[in-house]
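Colleagues,

For the teaching module next term, I've prepared a clean inverse folding example: a structure given as tokens, and then the sequence designed for it. I'd like students to try predicting residues themselves before seeing the answer, so please don't circulate the second half yet.
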């Protein structure tokens, strides 16, 4: 029963995606370009920000010990 419900949800999502794709493909090209840029640009910017934060957190967690080992001791 649960599997059948999931399949219906996937079928519904697939039908929605197909209708949106058909609608976008039938638009005038400059409008297609503007709509795609209006959607893709924010998504890519958000993905870049998230990747930057994750890499920064990982680098700060693992990078400080390595820098401490590589740092030369000041002369006495």
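(Answer key — instructors only)
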């Amino acid at each position: 029963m649960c599997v059948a419900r999931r399949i219906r949800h996937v079928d519904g999502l697939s039908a929605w995606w197909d209708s949106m794709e058909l609608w976008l493909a039938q638009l005038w090209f400059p409008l297609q370009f503007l709509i795609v840029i209006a959607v893709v640009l924010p998504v890519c910017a958000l993905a870049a920000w998230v990747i930057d934060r994750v890499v920064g957190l990982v680098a700060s967690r693992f990078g400080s010990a390595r820098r401490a080992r590589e740092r030369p001791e000041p002369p006495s």
